[in-house]
Amino acid sequence: MNEIFDKANAVLAEIQSSAPNNAEELEQFRIKYIGSKGILKDLFGFMGKLPNEQKKEYGQLMNTLKAAAEAKLEELKITFENGKPSATEIPDLTAPGYNFPLGTRHPLSIIKNRIIEIFGHIGFTVADGPEIEDDWHNFTALNTPKDHPARDMQDTFFITPDKEWMLRTQTSSVQIRKMESEKPPMRYIFPGRVYRNETISARAHCTFHQVEGLYIDENVSFVDLKQTMLYFAQEMFGKNTDIRFRPSFFPFTEPSAEMDISCFVCGQKGCPVCKYTGWVEIGGCGMVDPAVLENCKVDTKKYSGFAFGMGIERITMLKYQINDLRLFFENDVRFLKHFN
Ligand code: DAH
Question: How far is the CA of 286 from the centre of ligand 1 (A)?
Fold first, then answer.
């Protein structure tokens, strides 16, 4: 009766090696092996002819055969059903590739980077400080003690009831931090975000950006300040740009000045950007008040210095002739993609 075993084993090998290529061939495979008139049915039929002691072994072999045929049928059925592309799924190989849109830099970042680059050429390096500041660094050390009227110029977001902690109103606070932690000479710019309790409009926002500059060394004079500002203005706004200083007041500089640049939009003929004056204001500056140097334990007999502060939004609005500050914070990509 061994030839029955041999036959069944041969069929098992056949099942295992058979490879239907498509749904049609798979159906033929099904009919051939497990259909109602299939080979497996015939082979099961031999069971009755076997002696009892071989029945168990033969039964197990037949179960293996059946399981092998069914597994192959199931597996290939799934493959052929899933793999069969419907008419709409067939990819159009001639279609152009997908386009991955690239973002653009925010205009404030472009101008901030340009400012850093310009001052970098004349030896200024970048430093920063915390946006949550204490009274000493934001005001008192900057020669603006409590109850000084100059505090009213900057409507402050205090974050503790005793008004000891606040969101910094100016990047001038980083001047103090640097002078406290390092010895002169030093030449820094401090770009950063500042906060003031302002009603949001086309010209004001409660969050904006400044860049502060500080230069402390022996024999630094107002001449150095003027030349540094002229260099910056011409690099930023064009070689023909002129600058003008108007006397002003800041508690931390003495003397203090407001700096204007000649209007590069109209060439000083008069236009809405310069309000027909020929000049546009870009920031404040002055010689660091000796009281500030003393607060930071800088030897005022040996060292002097200048400082300046400019609004990055203001410079960006001038440079790109943007007339509404709110556009910077709305994140409308139609606006943002103008600045490549
Ligand atoms: N911190 C001033 C402000 O926010 C700007 C400023 C003016 C900074 C004059 C300076 C300076 O360093 O010398 O209004």
Answer: 9
Q: Which helix (H) or strand (E) holds 206?
A: none
Helix (H, G, I), strand (E, B) or coil at 330: helix
Give the pLDDT score at 98.
85
- CATH assignment of 107-339? 3.30.930.10
For 266-318, what is each residue's pLDDT tens digit? 999 999 889 999 999 999 999 999 999 999 999 999 999 999 999 999 999 99
Nearest to 314 by CA among 234, 203, 235, 228: 203
What is the 3-state secondary structure of 137-176? HHCHHHCCCCCCHHHHHCCCCECCCCCCEEECCCCHHHHH
Which pLDDT tens digit goes with each residue over 73-95?
888 888 887 766 666 677 888 88
Residue 172 Cβ contacting ligand 1 at under 6 Å: yes
- Beta carbons within 8 Å of 64's beta carbon, 6+ residues apart: 12
Distance from the alpha carbon of residue 206 to the mean position of ligand 1, in angstroms: 17
Sign of the Cα torsion 29, 35, 39, 44 reads: positive
pTM metric for this prediction = 0.73
285 C-beta closer than 6 A to ligand 1: yes
